[in-house]
Design goal:
Blueprint lengths: L20 H37 L9 H24 L10 H9 L4 H25 L9 E2 L2 H8 L2 H24 L6 H30 L1 E2 L5 H6 L3 H20 L21 H18 L1
Parallel strand pairs: 1-2
């Protein structure tokens, strides 16, 4: 008997934060004050030496005017400030090292609902290639070499474990998307690096899951099954597309939430339906019917 008794639900509150201009100024001061002071001291020292040497050789020039030092100090301040700001926007975010520029920018600018946009973007970046490959396999746009040709009894022994394998895949995905990803979305500004690493690691597990899903689908294409099993095999053709559709739907909803305006304070609701396939019972009935036929042929 096949059961799907490990339903997972997640309800709770998420901390929604974003950066205003003053937050960026504060962050620049906190993270780049050394760069700023080293820059201003270096520039001021260089300009002072140039002015001093020039004043020595050309005492009657404008460089002997004391206001030139004020100008030099102002130039040093402005250039050092520009360099500190540039360093702030160019430095990779800790915990997101190696991620593409678009992801770095989202984590740096932090518009309202930015954690949702960040999550959706990382998911798209990580799952994009394997999702396209999976879509090609599902829609028979990719050649899969037949590795096994099975008689009826051999095929039934092989396909017998597929429903439970698929339900295990659903259980794992529920844990990853509904529980683990939800926790990773609850961003704590006091532990930024740890939060980013948690999010990236969770998405890496989702990526690994997607590769397992791809293998599950390819495995079915690698089997040459008897004509009698055509109907039985057809039942499982909708299983993987169902999961793929739900994952893509979730990415879409995360992206839509991430694109919300600051004044949009409506309730956040993500609809994710991960249940046993509707045709599982039909699959079991057809499986039992074919087992009876196979036993009669022995």
């Amino acid at each position: 008997m096949i059961e799907n008794s490990d339903d997972v639900e997640k309800k709770g509150e998420l901390t929604i934060s974003y950066f205003r201009l003053n937050d960026h100024i504060k962050k620049i001061i906190q993270t780049n004050y050394k760069t700023f002071f080293i820059g201003i001291i270096s520039l001021m020292t260089t300009l002072w030496l140039i002015i001093s040497v020039s004043s020595f050789f050309y005492p009657d020039s404008f460089l002997s005017n004391k206001y030139v030092l004020y100008v030099a100090a102002s130039i040093s301040f402005i250039l050092s400030l520009i360099n500190a700001i540039r360093h702030y926007f160019k430095t990779p975010i800790k915990g997101l090292e190696g991620e593409i520029k678009e992801i770095q920018k989202i984590a740096l600018i932090r518009k309202p609902y930015w954690t949702f946009k960040l999550t959706a973007t990382i998911l798209k970046n990580r799952l994009g290639d394997i999702d396209r490959e999976l879509d090609n396999v599902i829609n028979n746009r990719k050649y899969i070499k037949i590795k096994k040709e099975l008689d009826l009894l051999e095929y039934l022994e092989w396909v017998n474990s597929r429903p439970n394998q698929f339900l295990t895949l659903i259980k794992v995905l529920k844990q990853l998307l509904i529980v683990d990803l939800f926790e990773a979305l609850n961003f704590d500004e006091n532990n930024e690096e740890g939060n980013f690493k948690l999010l990236v690691n969770t998405i890496k597990l989702i990526e690994d899951f997607y590769h397992d899903l791809y293998k599950f689908e390819v495995e079915e294409k690698e089997i040459m099954f008897p004509e009698l099993a055509q109907k039985l095999n057809s039942y499982q053709l909708s299983w993987v597309p169902m999961i793929r559709e739900n994952v893509n739907q979730m990415m879409k909803e995360l992206d839509e939430i991430g694109n919300r305006k600051r004044k949009d304070t409506s309730k956040i609701h993500i609809n994710l339906v991960l249940e046993s396939p509707d045709n599982i019972d039909d699959f079991i009935k057809e499986l039992e019917k074919l087992y009876n036929i196979a036993n009669e042929q022995l």
